[in-house]
């Protein structure tokens, strides 16, 4: 079941998502002494990361992991970890971040990262993005990686460049204790209507989601 929170703008939605995620981080640390959180790349989360970084939290107990990464050299401006560093990590000295070594290539990076997350067990929070085709992380409609059962999967033939990527597997996202998606913009309205209709898009296959969206992205508010 999806839980929809609709706001007037991306900025307002991002700040509300930051409040929600901060509360979940606190609850996870109180319950288990640590919080393991999957974080998204792309441009949409930037405002949420900035708002989250302003919170007073025990950041040394938070471990962050990218939901996916593009196969570029370390430091390439198109890598997700560069954006995450700019908007979140650079603001917090004590946070723990575990980058995907996609400079090794998709297969070797996926194998290495499975070992990195092996001890995590269940992720406490999967903070995800969503593309205009309904993909999340780098799990694209019709792509073979969507059918893989591994915790971390190599992705080939991505419809968006670069073709080679690494992504958290579908089962990893399904097993997270909580999933959050921040999405905005009129360009997302067509896919949002399909999500609300229950179409078997990748983002609809990860389980219950707490959606934080702006009004422009929601095609039919009566359905929420």
Examine the coordinates and then state which fold CATH places here, giving the name of the CATH topology: Rossmann fold
Strand content: 15-25%
Q: What is the CATH architecture annotation?
A: 3-Layer(aba) Sandwich
Identify low-pLDDT runs: none
Q: What is the CATH level 1 assignment?
A: Alpha Beta
Structural class: alpha/beta
Q: Calculate Rg over CA atoms.
A: 16 Å
Task: Give the distance, in angstroms, between the N- and C-terminal Cα atoms.
Answer: 11 Å
* Number of helices, where a helix is a run of at least 4 consecutive DSSP H or I residues: 6
Largest sheet: 7 strands, parallel
Number of strands: 10
Helix-residue proportion: 25-40%
Would you summarize the structure shown here?
The chain has 224 residues and is an alpha/beta fold. It is built from six helices and ten strands, in the order βαβαββαβαβββαβαβ.
């Amino acid at each position: 079941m999806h839980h929809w929170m609709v706001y007037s703008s991306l900025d307002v939605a991002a700040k509300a998502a930051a409040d929600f995620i901060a509360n979940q981080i606190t609850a996870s640390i109180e319950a288990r002494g640590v919080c393991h959180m999957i974080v998204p790349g792309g441009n949409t989360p930037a405002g949420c990361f900035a708002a989250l970084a302003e919170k007073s939290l025990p950041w040394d107990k938070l471990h962050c992991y990218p939901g996916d990464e593009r196969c570029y050299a370390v430091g390439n401006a198109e890598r997700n970890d560069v954006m995450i560093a700019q908007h979140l990590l650079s603001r917090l000295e004590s946070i723990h971040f575990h980058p995907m070594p996609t400079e090794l290539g998709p297969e070797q990076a996926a194998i290495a990262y499975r070992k990195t997350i092996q001890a995590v067990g269940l992720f406490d929070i999967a903070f995800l993005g969503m593309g205009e085709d309904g993909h999340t992380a780098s799990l694209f409609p019709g792509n073979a990686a969507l059918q893989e059962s591994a915790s971390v999967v190599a992705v080939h033939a991505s419809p968006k460049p670069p073709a080679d990527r690494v992504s958290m597997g579908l089962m990893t996202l399904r097993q997270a204790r909580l999933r959050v998606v921040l999405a905005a913009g009129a360009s997302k309205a067509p896919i949002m209507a399909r999500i609300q209709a229950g179409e078997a898009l990748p983002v609809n296959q990860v389980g219950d989601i707490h959606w934080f969206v702006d009004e422009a992205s929601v095609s039919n508010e009566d359905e929420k």
